[in-house]
Write a structure and sequence with these properties.
The complex is a heteropentamer, with two copies of chain A (232 residues), two copies of chain B (355 residues) and one copy of chain C (224 residues).
Chain A (H helix, E strand, L loop, with lengths): L6 H34 L5 H13 L2 H12 L6 H8 L7 H26 L2 H9 L4 H30 L2 H7 L9 H10 L4 H34 L2
Chain B lengths: L2 E8 L4 E8 L3 E6 L5 H9 L6 E6 L2 E5 L4 E2 L7 E4 L11 H11 L9 H8 L14 H13 L5 E5 L7 H17 L4 E4 L3 H7 E8 L2 E7 H6 L9 E11 L4 E6 L2 E6 L8 E7 L3 E4 L10 E13 L2 E8 L2 E7 L1 H7 L6 E6 L3 E3 L5
Parallel strand pairs in B: 3-9, 3-10, 7-8, 8-9
Antiparallel strand pairs in B: 1-2, 1-4, 4-5, 5-6, 10-11, 12-13, 12-15, 13-14, 15-21, 16-20, 17-18, 17-20, 18-19
Helix pairs in contact in B: 2-4
Chain C lengths: L4 H15 L10 H9 L6 E3 L3 H9 L3 E12 L1 E6 L14 H5 L4 E4 L5 H12 L3 H4 L3 E4 L2 H9 L5 E5 H4 L5 E6 L8 E8 L5 H9 L3 H9 L3 E2 L2
Parallel strand pairs in C: 4-5, 4-6
Antiparallel strand pairs in C: 1-8, 2-8, 2-9, 3-6, 3-7
Helix pairs in contact in C: 1-10, 2-3
The chains are: A mainly alpha (232), B alpha+beta (355), C alpha+beta (224).
The complex binds adenosine-5'-triphosphate (ATP) (2 copies) and magnesium ion (2 copies).
């Protein structure tokens, strides 16, 4: 395979994996928090939060990318402070691709987790509480294990979306080989080039292979967890 | 430590208005299905926040809606055996059992793991997950889980309902010992008079969300009106010597009773529950009969209860109840003050502190 | 613009061989790139497929004075579905409406993508726009336009000459006269963030002979 | 219609190997927690597909693994009262109750809706959803749902375990009538000897997945070894006239018994369950005593059972059991063949066809 | 509002609503079927089906659009027969936009529904069966009502995605005012022009408003259903 892909393409594949991995990993805790908040808490602005989470889904990726650019760009309203105070720069770095992918994948992740949390029987959590476990402990020892299949589903959806994310990424952090040139961006680029379809097709197969591998892995994990819960 | 409960809560169809004290030992919550027993227990556990109420355990305030004090469930240090088991499906039976221990205050010893597992007969299940356990197995694990969490207060909502008689007979004496050694209040919901008579010290009767009567088990179960079907009296006796054939003499004001008891210290005072239906009356002391336990007593109040006659008997200063047919009552010519002999088949022995 | 990829990659590779510098190129839509540059992208050179986006960047004060030039030009062609479609005379007797029948004319977005804007201008100039306006299928870029024609979804399409060459399933049926639309230019500029001599060297190499040859081979017109 | 069950199935920890016939009327599945009762019921319902087995109901083959016949559950026409209620959470109580009727074959009348609702005391719940019902309320609705589905076979897995005595006492006679009018086999899982004695005609004893004994209820419950704790005999008697004080005479081979019965046709033969613990023995007929029911009988086999003596008595050709202390046995000088008088407090009346 | 938007934009809004509505409606039964199959059945090729369902997520939309074009285009491998035999034409029609939106939204819909189906307790379905309900009836009277919140969640995700879908749509059926010019395409067009942000923003607000309305509606439905199930 290393032969079959040019080093540049190979880089794009690795970069995509890296970006997707980090996008999922970093958004996981936020996703869980937001999903939990939407599923269980009542607070003013809940529906606004719900709306914001769904925004990346409903807006054309170009718009999301643009909004990211003017917010987290080097001169962006938030980006400049992140840079000044923490030295975090997203613009035109692979970290920016991670941010874009995470934002785009967030609604999918949150929905899956939220459904899972809503399906947990609060009676079990109550049982945990009567046995002396505080809220965080109940969450960790009862809720989390029970929602694991949903978390895996959410993560895998997010991973797939992150692997395929392109519009927001290229708008936000451009298409820089080795930094922000992910697999879909590469595919897109090839599609733009006269006669590039064959090359694009090759990368498409790579993308499909990765997706299938991730899916199989997630199915396996879900099944394992589900079987444990169903009581074997 | 005394648990003191007073609460008011409205559901669409029923309003709960309950107040009672549960001292050391077992307090039974008694009442028909839907009378509010589980709701009360949930409020004590902190799973239901009543509209108004105050619940204290010793000097700890668990709830005081007037002062806006609401201790969350995990700080109440309770062991709750739910009516519907509620085992954690993702943990093995062993992990379920040990869950509470994890969070128990260090240094506070609960029941012994091996002992509880043995008693409940769940050793072969330890490695399994609860999904495919049988109904009774689930309820035994749930019982074990609560017992092992070293609680300050035990809440048991029909813990033995799904168990067979043999298993019950093994667990009950153990619960009695628990009640007497671990000195925590136990709130016990049950439909079985026998269980309540054995275990309970106080009985709280619920009806449609209200406490209709509350008091020591002896009085409550001897009250013919409130406990029609399974009326009976609780009598305190003193343990005497055990004879060679294994029977122990129990001394009462009405004469000796003989019972197969074991491990009971001579001189201890224990409680016997004598169901009214198991007491026959005779004008003369019956001879040549298989009944060993015959008490001298005096007829007290005679009341007629839907087809039966309930006779209250005075045995010294204790009360005994006999439920007989009107025909027998006529035949015997019973009258208050008349001396009679009560032929007794004792059903339940309620050990422990006298009520 | 992504359509320049093949040629620009080659130029960059050559430049790299000669100077030992590596050139990092980010291909994206002109609008995206321009916005990124305005938002502080660390770019040294900007090549745009659209004059207006270069103007934007210049207006933001990010172009080094005097370091902007029109690098390349392109022509607009009418492509037809199939390997050997009949040539069409685009001139006086040109009747696109009749040519299309009830088929669609594939173009890039006529209001926003340069190829579409040029195409619309040309058709207006030729007096055809109002007749075909309702039959125009707009794609978001030139390649997608070409795909519509290649697939036979649309019998005709308007694309750049440089894109038309690579597709087997389409024939260039005619070339729009250069005076039918504003000149198609690809401006290049050295940006104010450019730090060193190497940047300037590459900027100059873009209009060097070597580069000209490569661009010309891909069908671009050399403007400098 | 007879239900005939024979199956073999292995779980990781236990292997089930069971065969029995359940004729018309109630067949009780009896056994300790975890002995495989629910598993058997599930196999009959078609929810578990055993490794090997054959189950027939009348001439309908429900399952025959050898012939690869497996009737899906919905074609078996069963009414199953699950041990764990399993109400539909999205339907109201009324909709839950009527669910089965929807799918019942047209023209087949099940129990009367209003009557069942009344009996179970769930009228106030009809419009509610099951989510917040109390434990006993749930089990009553589950019972009603199965009864109303007009089944060809009723499976009841501890249907009354969560109910109070009063409610049970209302439901049991109704189930008896159901058993006698709707002529479908009923497979009944219960831990309560009293319930089984009242309802069942056949008893199947399970132990660790195997049938240890099976037979008519009279034999099974009179067998002192298999039913140690709650031994008792079932006796058939003939209903005589009811006297002015409401007591009905019941004629047995050992003399008349007197009981408050109502609505029992004179001349009918009914079954009485007499627990061994409720039988006293006397050498002479006791006089001046409140007990009305004294039977003449003859001592049969005498066996010693962990501290107690179990005496089998012959009353005509029927058997009675008396459980007494060894001391009493010695005191009375009991010997096989000796005539004695049994003083009886009848506990359970099992109406219906004699077993 | 009619004043505030030009007639063309107004058309784009209405078209987007129509396209999204039909995309969701038509994919609902397929989504339920596939979700059920993935959640409950074992069959050869299950993982392949799973993979195919996820493909639109992982591929750049352009590629999906291109694949749709060569499959369902008028001369496409499937499209030509659809045209010949049933007279169904997708190319350049709003129906094509529906197809593109449905395909792109499908993975989201299926995941949500699948999670919901997996959360249903089979014991309740068994109870239905013992009461005489055949499999389809059990599904209709027990399973479906229980998964309704998941179905609503899936539908709303799909609707949001369909409202935002743009890359595959424009590639497949291009951008014909009144036929295939949806809201995101219009937004995209504005974003391509210097200074078009303000005009784009106007449409973005419209998109957000619609999304919020749809979300609120779905939350309301879910809550209603959930409350019924939890037993009030
Ligand atoms: N799917 C399963 N996998 C493994 N073991 C099982 C499974 N189902 C049941 N068992 C075991 O088989 C035994 C019999 O279970 P069953 O539910 O039939 O008991 P039961 O007689 O109904 O008991 P109870 O009175 O407690 O309800 C139990 O020990 C149970 O743990
Ligand atoms: N959240 C609720 N909303 C409405 N009614 C409720 C709610 N919770 C309980 N109830 C009703 O309150 C009454 C008391 O319920 P509770 O569970 O306390 O009864 P219980 O005494 O435990 O009965 P059982 O012996 O059947 O378990 C019941 O009629 C029940 O339906
Ligand atoms: Mg209760
Ligand atoms: Mg069972």
């Amino acid at each position: 395979m290393a032969d079959w892909l040019s080093p540049d393409e190979w880089n794009a594949v690795l970069l995509s994996l890296r970006v997707s991995f980090w996008a999922v990993l970093i958004s996981l805790p936020f996703g869980l928090l937001v999903a939990h908040a939407l599923a269980r808490w009542e607070f003013p602005g809940k529906q606004v939060l719900n709306g914001i989470v769904h925004l990346p889904l409903i807006l054309p990726p170009v718009v999301t990318g643009y909004l990211l650019l003017i917010t987290f760009g080097r001169k962006g309203s938030v980006g400049q402070y992140l840079d000044q105070w923490f030295g975090i720069v997203f613009a035109f770095r692979w970290t920016g691709a991670v941010l874009a992918a995470a934002v785009m994948a967030f609604p999918l992740m949150v929905r899956a987790m939220r459904l899972a949390i809503e399906a947990v029987d609060p009676k079990l959590e109550q049982a945990g509480a009567t046995l002396g476990a505080s809220k965080p402990w109940v969450w960790l020892t009862v809720t989390l294990p029970m929602i694991l299949p949903g978390v895996v589903a959410g993560a895998i959806l997010a991973f797939a979306k992150a692997m395929g994310e392109f519009g927001a990424t290229i708008t936000f952090v451009s298409n820089i080989p080795g930094q922000t040139r992910t697999l879909p961006t590469a595919i897109y680029s090839f599609m733009q080039v006269p006669g590039g379809e064959a090359q694009a097709a090759r990368l498409v197969w790579v993308a499909i292979a990765i997706a299938m591998a991730a899916l199989l892995l997630s199915e396996w994990v879900s099944r394992l967890v589900a079987r444990r819960i169903s009581g074997k | 430590m005394t648990l003191s409960v007073s609460l008011r809560h409205s559901f669409p169809g029923i309003t709960l208005d309950v107040a009672f004290d549960a001292p050391q030992g077992v307090t039974a919550l008694f009442g028909r299905s839907g009378s509010g027993k589980t709701t009360v227990v949930n409020a004590v556990a902190g799973l239901l926040r009543p509209d108004h109420g105050r619940i204290t355990l010793g000097d700890r305030v668990l709830l005081d809606t007037a002062q806006r004090v609401v201790l969350p469930p995990h700080k109440r240090r309770i062991g709750y055996v739910f009516q519907d088991a509620r085992l954690f499906p993702h943990l093995t039976v062993r992990q379920n059992l040990l869950y509470g221990r994890w969070f128990a205050p260090k240094g506070k010893a609960g029941a012994e793991f091996d002992q509880v597992v043995d008693l409940l007969g769940i050793a072969p299940l330890l490695a399994r997950r609860p999904g495919h356990l049988s109904g009774g197995e689930k309820s035994r694990v749930a019982l074990g889980r609560a017992l092992l969490s070293a609680p300050d207060l035990l809440l048991m909502d029909e813990p033995l309902a799904a168990l067979d008689e043999a298993r019950k007979a093994e667990i009950l004496p153990w619960l009695e010992r628990l009640r007497d050694t671990v000195r925590v209040p136990i709130l016990y919901v049950s439909h079985s008079h026998a269980e309540v008579a054995r275990l309970a010290i106080t009985v709280v009767m619920l009806e449609a969300g209200r406490v209709t009567r509350t008091g020591p088990v002896a009085e409550m179960l001897a009250d013919p009106v409130s406990a029609r079907r399974e009326a009976g009296a609780v009598m305190t006796v003193q343990v005497g010597p055990t004879e060679s054939d294994g029977l122990t003499r129990l001394d009462s004001a009405g004469g000796p009773l003989w019972l197969a008891l074991s491990g009971m210290a001579e001189g201890a005072r224990i409680r016997l529950r004598i169901p009214a239906r198991d007491v026959m009356l005779a004008r003369q002391r019956p001879e040549g009969i298989s009944a060993l336990n015959i008490l001298e007593c005096r007829v007290g109040e005679i009341s007629v209860l839907s087809g039966d006659v309930m006779v209250r008997l005075a045995v010294g200063d204790e009360a005994l109840l006999a439920q007989i047919t009107p025909r027998s009552a006529r035949g015997l010519g019973l009258e208050p003050g008349m001396p009679v002999f009560a032929v007794v088949r004792t059903i339940a022995v309620a050990t422990g502190a006298p009520g | 613009a992504a359509s320049m990829k093949n040629a620009l990659d080659e130029v960059a590779a050559k430049f790299g061989e000669e100077t030992g510098n590596t050139v990092v190129i980010s291909y994206a839509g002109s609008n995206a790139l321009a916005r990124q540059i305005i938002e502080g992208a660390p770019a040294d050179i900007f090549i745009s497929a659209a004059v207006n986006w270069m103007d934007e960047v210049e207006r933001a004060g990010l172009v080094v004075d005097g370091a902007r030039e029109d690098l390349l030009g392109n022509t607009l062609v009418l492509v037809a579905h199939g390997k050997d479609a009949a040539p069409v005379e685009i001139g006086a007797g040109f009747d696109l409406r009749a040519l299309l029948g009830d088929g669609k004319l594939a173009m890039a977005l006529v209001d926003s993508v340069p190829a579409g804007q040029y195409g619309k201008a040309a058709l207006e100039h030729l007096g055809q726009w109002s007749a075909v306006e309702g039959s125009v299928a707009q794609a978001d870029n030139v390649r997608a336009t070409l795909a519509l024609v290649a697939q036979g979804e649309a019998p005709y399409g308007i694309v750049y000459a440089t894109d038309a060459v690579a597709e087997d399933n389409v024939t260039v049926a005619g070339t729009f006269p250069a005076d039918s639309h504003k000149p198609i230019v690809y401006p290049a500029a050295l940006l104010s963030g450019a730090a060193d001599a190497a940047d300037r060297a590459f900027y100059e190499a873009l209009s060097g002979d070597e580069a000209d040859k490569i661009f010309a081979a891909e069908g671009f017109a050399i403007l400098n």
